[in-house]
Write a structure and sequence with these properties.
- This protein is of the alpha+beta class and 351 residues long.
- 30% of the residues lie in helices and 20% in strands.
- It has ten helices and 15 strands.
- A five-stranded antiparallel β-sheet has the order 1-15-6-12-11. A four-stranded antiparallel β-sheet has the order 4-14-9-10.
- Strand 9 and strand 10 form a beta hairpin.
- The chain is extended.
- The mean pLDDT is 90.
Amino acid sequence: MTSISEVNSIPKTKKPSDSAFKQQRLPAWQPILTAGTVLPTFFVIGIAFIPVGIGLLYFSDQVKEYIIDYTDCNSTNYFLADKVPYKCADFITHTPHPNPPCICEINFTLPSHFNGRIYMYYGLTNFYQNHRRYVKSRDDNQLLGKLSNDVSGDCAPFAYEGSTAIVPCGAIANSLFSDELALYSMSHKANVPLLKTGIAWPSDKNIKFRNPEGDLKVAFKEYAKPKDWTKYIYELDPDDESNNGFQNEDLIVWMRTAALPTFRKLYRRVNHTVNGFGDGLLEGDYKLTVNYSYPVSAFDGKKRMILSTTSLLGGKNPFLGIAYIVVGCICLLLGLTLLIIHIKCSKSKLM
């Protein structure tokens, strides 16, 4: 029997135990890069990527777009001396908030038929929705319909008006896009029918945004509206009660922040069930009417209206197709270069 003194006298060692894991005897696969493995990989990637890129470019080119920059459009209801029209951008900049409506109209011509489903987008440039503090500036509990006078600290300085909580609070909601866009068809002598619903992600509308129970006006009456809004949240869509409050799809679309400073967001869908618009928009003359209220001059931004069709892969996006083709060409070029080097080196060794 070993005594305690004998155990203490056994010299300690830092040698790992004799196991397969600690002695690194586990089976392993180590790739060996040879010409026979590297060259086929480059050629396979190149041959696979180029046709995929061409296909992506083809589907992207099938999408038709028409873009109008209306940032500096002239007012039709406000004039300077000698009936010189005000620019709406200047008018809303120099008029105290809340601004009276500034209306501008732009005539344009669609150069060809826009067949299939047509979507209207608004686009902004130089607007950094991806800023860290901007992205955090919201109260998700509030957006789920759980209203209280105690809001998230992330909403500051758009959290309270005096001692009253702002609903919805935060910088994202406060900067909600407020221009109202409408289209008029000269050939049909009628407004293009536009739908306000079906523009938000179903997962957002059904899960992330909920209205409080009961009458919306009663539920929201104890709270203040965002500082830059002219309407209360229960007045966003007076024609459709189901599209009001936190369930308003314009609000939901805006609250999904963009990743880049130049972006577009879905604004409306053309209603193809109306006679004359079942096949899309016909070639011809149209008029864009803008209720201009959203300021962009403070951050040197631009505003655009985009009409677009779609393809099997969605909207127009040539970047992905170009990227596949470029990567495929680089792989083929590298493969050919390495093949030539390999052949020359093999011949020199034989000599």
